[in-house]
User: Which sequence fits this backbone?
């Protein structure tokens, strides 16, 4: 199977690219709208990304080979399948006599196959079928990940060509925004050797601002508490000499229209880049509602959190097909150090394939 990713100004142009390279038998696996990075050619104008595949296996014969004449039943003797069935029945009777019918039934219930597991996780049926058919051809999860990493879009957090990068972390209550802000600040300050400031806009959650202020003091970086758009704009002016400003926004229910209006107002400053913090352990419906609600603040990147609480990595594929922007980081665990790692497509694909092939 040959898989390729194409990008063009329109869906029609992307499909034409796929047809020219893969032929008329190519199958479209996924399409999505992408935006070029700031400063890139055509920045600000959305483009279409299309993933397509074509089966490169051997051609099917147009007709069956003539079969030799089969001997009569008397000449053949007992069918091998009959002998195998009799042996399996005898083994089953022996197991039932040892452990009982109920225990045997509980332990021999067939597990769902890869296609069913992908569909249950929210992956579209056509894509789930394509992936499931490809797995028997792969000798390892690493080989499968190399084949399907094109389905995962990852990119670092955007940095402006000049001036201060302002990253505002948004997302539902309990997504891990404050932890991510602290981890990002530590990574930028000590690993990237950049100057960083922290801003908390969370005046609703008890102790949130105080927690972030203590972390900022420990790191030796400036901190401010801003509860409205005006005070946030003033803080950004004062932090104009910093390389990066991290803004921790208040969490809220995706169903709370008043909260979402306030969030849009808070982040109305054109200097702010919205980053969606999305828990990987959300149910499919909760994830759909959250993506729809927080899409209103135009997230440019995504940080996936709580991977250690998700139970399975298979939904990561569905998540990466649904989110409106590339994934920048993965976050898991509670420790401040080491819990945030840059996302890359091969590692995400490997997590999924390891679970599918286990």
Assistant:
């Amino acid at each position: 199977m040959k898989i390729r990713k194409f990008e063009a100004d329109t869906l029609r142009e992307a499909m034409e690219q796929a047809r020219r390279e893969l032929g008329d038998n190519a199958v479209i696996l996924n399409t999505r709208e992408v935006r070029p990075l700031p400063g890139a050619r055509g920045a600000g104008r959305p483009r279409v990304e299309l993933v397509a595949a074509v089966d490169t296996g051997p051609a099917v014969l147009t007709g069956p080979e003539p079969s030799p004449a089969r001997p009569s039943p008397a000449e053949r003797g007992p069918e091998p399948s009959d002998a195998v069935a009799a042996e399996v029945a005898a083994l089953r009777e022996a197991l039932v006599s040892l452990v009982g019918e109920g225990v045997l039934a509980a332990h021999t219930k067939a597990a769902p196959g890869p296609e069913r597991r992908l569909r249950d996780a929210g992956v579209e049926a056509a894509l789930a079928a394509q992936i499931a058919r490809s797995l028997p051809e792969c000798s390892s999860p690493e080989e499968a990940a190399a084949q399907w990493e094109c389905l995962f879009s990852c990119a670092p957090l955007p940095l402006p060509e000049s001036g201060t990068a302002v990253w505002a972390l948004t997302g539902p209550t309990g997504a891990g925004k404050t932890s991510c802000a602290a981890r990002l600040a530590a990574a930028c300050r000590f690993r990237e050797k950049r100057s960083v400031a922290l801003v908390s806009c969370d005046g609703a959650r008890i102790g949130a601002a105080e927690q972030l202020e203590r972390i900022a003091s420990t790191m030796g970086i400036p901190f401010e508490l801003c509860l409205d758009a005006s005070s946030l704009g003033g803080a950004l002016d004062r932090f104009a000499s910093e390389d990066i400003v991290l803004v921790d926004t208040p969490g809220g229910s995706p169903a709370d229209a008043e909260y979402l209006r306030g969030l849009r107002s808070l982040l109305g400053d054109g200097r702010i880049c919205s980053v969606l913090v999305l828990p990987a352990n959300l149910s499919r419906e909760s994830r759909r509602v959250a993506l729809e609600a927080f899409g209103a603040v135009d997230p440019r990147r995504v940080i996936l959190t709580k991977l250690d609480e998700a139970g399975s990595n298979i939904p990561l594929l569905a998540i990466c097909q649904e989110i409106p922007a590339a994934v920048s980081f993965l976050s898991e665990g509670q420790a401040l150090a080491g819990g945030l790692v840059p996302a890359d497509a091969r590692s995400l694909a490997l997590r999924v394939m390891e679970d599918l092939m286990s």
